[in-house]
Amino acid sequence: MCLTEETTETLYLLGEGARVVGVSGYTVRPPAAREKPKVSAFINARFDKIEALKPDLVLGFSDLQADIAAELIRRGYPVYTFNQRTVVEILQMIRIVGALVGRAEAGDALAARLETDLDAARARAATLERRPRVFFEEWDDPLISGICWVDELVEIAGGEPIFPELRDKRLGKDRIVDPSSVIERNPDVIVASWCGKAMKKRTIVERAGWSAINAIRDDRIYEIKSSYILQPGPASLTEGLRQLQTLLSPPAA
């Protein structure tokens, strides 16, 4: 039973999708997983549906699912809750998931392939003549800067996050930034991923004083859907990184 998407995708990549008996309603990767019973959102779950499926193990994510995990434990289910917030921790999660289902070698191999791809991305970024300053906008109101693995991926893709001092703050409320500080740090690129809702470019462009920002002036405002970049698993290390590399490439002359 997977209460978030990243463990679901990991199991499918390990060839163990048949073991997954229930998924989060937010699951989009891989498409085949959407055929599984939906048993949870992010901060709530259908305990009756979970019990009907009789899982041998429940996989969750973060403090936000602590109440769900506690209730399932009280009901007698074994629960493993991950809390990965960095690229290294994402790779560790993949290895642990492999070990939990008796596929430790496959988990190690998958993580190693992803690490190789990350190294290749770093090498490509090293050839850039200039690394653009990037503001990753995780939420619009209040304005929240990107979590650690996102900042790390921005760097791997060739960018320089403008709020590096906030990356280790695990909670969104601790990464709230004043819009005026974004103006002061003047990003060359703005990447928005509003955690499950579509980015509205006009909202960004019309903020008071933001017309002076390079990214606004040069029309370098982009969106990456949250399922690709805010999912701390294979998706962010593959498709999320790929999209960041594309967006941070030098604009055509």
Q: Secondary-structure blueprint of this entry?
A:
Blueprint: H1 5-13, E1 23-24, E2 38-40, H2 47-53, E3 58-61, H3 66-74, E4 79-82, H4 87-100, H5 104-125, E5 133-140, E6 143-145, H6 148-157, E7 160-161, H7 179-185, E8 189-192, H8 201-205, H9 214-217, E9 221-223, H10 226-229, H11 234-248
Parallel strand pairs: 1-2, 3-4, 5-7, 5-8, 8-9
Antiparallel strand pairs: 5-6
Helix pairs in contact: 4-5, 5-11, 6-11
3D architecture notes:
- The chain is α/β, with parallel strands linked by helices and 253 residues long.
- 42% of the residues lie in helices and 13% in strands.
- The chain is built from 11 helices and 9 strands.
- The chain has helices at residues 5-13, 47-53, 66-74, 87-100, 104-125, 148-157, 179-185, 201-205, 214-217, 226-229, 234-248, and strands spanning 23-24, 38-40, 58-61, 79-82, 133-140, 143-145, 160-161, 189-192, 221-223.
- The mean pLDDT is 95.
